[in-house]
Automatic annotation (TrEMBL):
It comes from Candidatus Roizmanbacteria bacterium CG_4_10_14_0_2_um_filter_39_13. SUPFAM superfamilies: P-loop containing nucleoside triphosphate hydrolases (SSF52540). GO terms for cellular component: proton-transporting ATP synthase complex. It holds the Pfam family ATP-synt_ab. Residues 2-136 form the ATPase F1/V1/A1 complex alpha/beta subunit nucleotide-binding domain. One of its GO terms (molecular function) is ATP binding. Keywords: ATP synthesis, ATP-binding, CF(1), Hydrogen ion transport, Ion transport, Membrane, Nucleotide-binding, Transport. InterPro entries: ATP_synth_F1_asu, ATPase_F1/V1/A1_a/bsu_nucl-bd, P-loop_NTPase. F-type ATPases have 2 components, CF(1) - the catalytic core - and CF(0) - the membrane proton channel. CF(1) has five subunits: alpha(3), beta(3), gamma(1), delta(1), epsilon(1). CF(0) has four main subunits: a(1), b(1), b'(1) and c(9-12). It is found in: Membrane. Belongs to the ATPase alpha/beta chains family. This is ATPase F1/V1/A1 complex alpha/beta subunit nucleotide-binding domain-containing protein.
């Protein structure tokens, strides 16, 4: 209901506020929701100003307008606080999940990756409704150690195969034992990735990957997952348990990590306790 001029100015005002807090020595997160509406408002203003239109009737400098806005975010040196940052998360609307739209492809060319929220996945009840195969990170793996990078690749591979095999199984086709195992792992990973407004420590997330991979516990239902998760979270408050989980998850090699998972008496005891 606001005027196009208000829509056009809003992200610039928001970024100026972020810069104010940055200059105060604070780390800032700014979410621009959404730049598709901003682009449409800019297009309306430009057409009314009788400026020559470009692709999809957007003004010719729409890429520059968004790029110059997003480039105001980043890491900065503060004279008193040291390193401070503005983290900018631009949002764009897609039509029926089409990533090839003009504004969305522009933003993908400017940013360090993107997350695609899928309406079909949302309607299936998954939260957050992220389309994992079509979501991309260009710098995220640089913040991970070797173990996390390998686990990420394995999970992505299983989830990708899980979707394909699910589509085939719906047709009534017979599937192999390997495909059945992928379906079991994929379902368990889907349950693990379903979030219920709960912060799960990094070490527990990694251990749960090992539990699924080694089939140490049946995580095929939300109830079973919640039971063992609650137990891990309660035990994690004990320093000895926390230190043991940290020790296991600091291993760089995935094969060595899985060997440690098999041999670890604490994890074996927890899994047997809940299955007995």
């Amino acid at each position: 209901s606001d005027a196009p001029s208000i829509h056009y100015l809003t992200p610039y005002v928001a970024m100026t506020h972020a810069e104010y807090f940055r200059d105060k020595g604070l780390n800032v997160v700014i979410i621009l929701d959404d730049l598709s509406t901003h682009a449409q408002s800019y297009r309306e203003i430009s057409l009314l100003s009788q400026r020559f239109p470009g692709r999809d009737s957007y003004p010719g400098d729409i890429f520059y307008a968004h790029a110059s806005l997003l480039e105001r975010a980043g890491n900065f040196h503060h004279p008193e606080k040291g390193s401070v940052s503005i983290t900018c998360l631009p949002v764009a609307t897609t039509v029926e999940g089409d990533l090839a739209g003009y504004i969305s492809t522009n933003l993908m060319g400017m940013t360090d990756g993107h997350i695609l929220f899928d309406a079909d996945i949302y309607n299936k009840g998954s939260r957050p409704a992220i389309n994992i195969p079509l979501s991309v990170t260009r710098v995220g793996r640089q913040t991970q150690n070797d173990l996390l990078r390998k686990i990420t690749l394995e999970v992505l591979s299983v989830l990708s195969q899980y979707e394909k095999i699910q589509n085939i199984s719906h047709l009534g086709s017979e599937i192999s034992d390997d495909s059945k195992r992928i379906l079991e792992k994929g379902k368990a990973f889907q349950i693990m990735l379903h979030q219920e407004h709960l912060i799960i420590p990094r070490e527990i997330q990694i251990v749960f990957f090992g539990i699924v991979w080694l089939n140490m516990y049946d995580l095929s239902t939300q109830e079973a997952y919640k039971k063992i998760l609650d137990l891990f979270l309660s035990l994690y408050e004990k320093e000895a348990v926390r230190d043991e989980l940290v020790r296991i998850t600091m291993i760089e090699s995935l094969p060595q990590f899985l060997i440690q998972m098999k041999q670890n008496k604490l994890i074996q005891t927890i899994c047997k306790q809940k299955t007995s």
